[in-house]
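Changelog note: in this version the structure field was regenerated for every chain. One regenerated record is shown below for reference.
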Amino acid sequence: MKNFLKKVALFTMISSMALAASKDKGHLLIYAGLMEDYAIKSTREFEKETGIKTEFVRMSSGETLARVRAEKDNMTASVWFGGPVDAFVAANEEGLIEPYKSPIADQIPSKFKDPNGVWTGIYVGYLGFVGNKELLEEIGAEMPQSWEDLLKPEYKGELVTAHPGSSGTAYTMLSTIIQLKGEKEGMEYMQKLNKQVRQYTKSGTAPGRMVGMGETAVGVTFLHDAIKYRKEGYKDIIISAPKEGTGFEIGGVAVLKNGPDQEEARKFVDWALSKRAQEIGQTVGSFQFLTNENAIPPKEAQEIANTKLIDYDFAWAGANRRDLLEKFSNATKTTAPKK
């Protein structure tokens, strides 16, 4: 009996030590702005490598920004992972980001990171057009090749884009137009474009899938998302980029201020910037260009490598986000969809 009790006591002690060790590794909640399958694979791999229990909530950039604003005094998540950094800049202006300069950021070129560690880029995506070849033939329209093409009568009611109030993709479009044309002419363009739009979606990825399914002829999206849908079997998808030049996203990662697990959050940022972590995206159909100099980019991205880009000003786009969204809503009489 004494030996049995000793064994029970030893087992209990070992179990308690194991439980304590497990708890010591921590827990992490992430707000993810990238594709859900990318977020799933990344959080699983991080948890496997570190032992830190990791969960995520997938939201568009506008939703995430609204959430962290609401949680300012009681932050639930500790990391913002993915999505255009314009929203990160806006969040930092409101004191919602905890700057962190990761040692792995030395492997990221300066143009892909904030000098003060507010955000660091993990990928780069180009904005453009996605079309359905069969539907375009049915309506007798060519694939648009410029921003001005989207205003042609044949595209009226055939264009789908996300709403910039909810989507980082669509905010990149709005900011691109204003940076290309100036505020007055740019807002006049957005008013005209609004008359062409069949539907504003909440998410920037939705237009590509809708075009692929044959629900509409043309969409505005990040081109890597359109490539993903084409590889998934939507064979009628074709893509193009505006000849005037287009904006682009730097998908970022940042630590949220006053998040509950700051040490674990910094570990995740270190991991997300690594070569291994950045190469995960292409294994689940995310074909962005990568920021780590040692990471091997997906071969699928070469299709759009020669896209003409504007000198997109992320700091300006982030600082002027509230103002531009208000002016867009007033000009188009639209609000961000809730579903």
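Spot check on this record: The radius of gyration is 22 Å. The mean pLDDT is 93.
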